[in-house]
Amino acid sequence: MVLRAPLWTSRHQAGLALAEAFADRRGHSGDTTLVAVPRGGVPVAAAMASRLELPLVTWSVRKVADPSWPELAIGAVAAGGVVVWRNGAGGRQRATTATEHGWLRDQELELQRRQRRFGDPPADQLRGRHLIVVDDGIATGMTVKAALLSLRRVRPASLALAVPVVDRDVAGELGRLVERMEALAVVSDLQAVGLWYEHFEQLSDRQVLALLQGCRGGIPSTPPAPPLSGP
After folding, report:
1. Checking DSSP bridges between strand 130-134 and strand 82-85, what pairing results, if any?
2. 32-36 and 56-58 as β-strands: parallel, antiparallel, unpaired?
């Protein structure tokens, strides 16, 4: 089948489609949590939460970029001191430059602000649970890779990744970091996630909070279930 953009009218519609891929987890709120990468991953995960009857939390990540090229990520930072840099021989130089110019520190501060603003949970609330990490699309994979490495440190029962659209090469790399990966569209040379949606507006903190407040909350304390099945 040839995939042609756009495939979805909105992030919400994409989330409903992703929920079908995780129908086996419907109602498993005792041991499974949806973990949205804000901001864009929240409306996708909110739609999944309503359909699957699962709790939803956020796990903030910030990309590190040269201010003169803000759209090009050279790295990403996540909870627990996790920092990843774009692959290649220049990775060490990028890290040095970002540190010396304060770009990394700026994003660490913004990360802390978002963690407080969105109410990211402490690690012990996620330990031993099946975590389904959700974003609205993956082009370079920098922020999602940082999120997965960070969440692995909380010692979950398992990690899954749910995404509407992902670059083919990046999918191969990220798939090795999780027990399960579900992507509705895997495309070559993905240039811009927004092209795959008819409506792809930038979200404000207030919109994110409204979506979170409208979802089921709370994480029951029950023993972990058997590991997630494969795709």
Report:
1. unpaired
2. parallel
- Residue 92: CA count within 13 A, CB half-sphere: 1
Query: End-to-end alpha-carbon separation of the chain, Å?
Result: 19
Tell me the pLDDT tens digit for each residue of 93-125.
777 888 877 888 999 999 999 999 999 999 999
Pairing of strands 73-78, 82-85: antiparallel
Structure tokens at 88: 């290649």
Crossing angle between the packed helical segments 205-213 and 41-52, to the nearest 10 degrees? 10
3-state SS assignment for residue 107? helix
Q: Helix (H, G, I), strand (E, B), or coil: what is residue 192?
A: coil
As beta bridge partners, residue 221 has none
Q: What is the distance between the alpha carbons of residues 195 and 199, in angstroms, rounded to a whole number?
A: 9
Q: What is the pTM of this model?
A: 0.89
Strand partners of residue 185 = 165
Residue 26: name the closest of 54, 1, 5 by CA.
Answer: 54
- Answer yes or no: are the C-beta atoms of 37 and 133 closer than 8 Å: yes
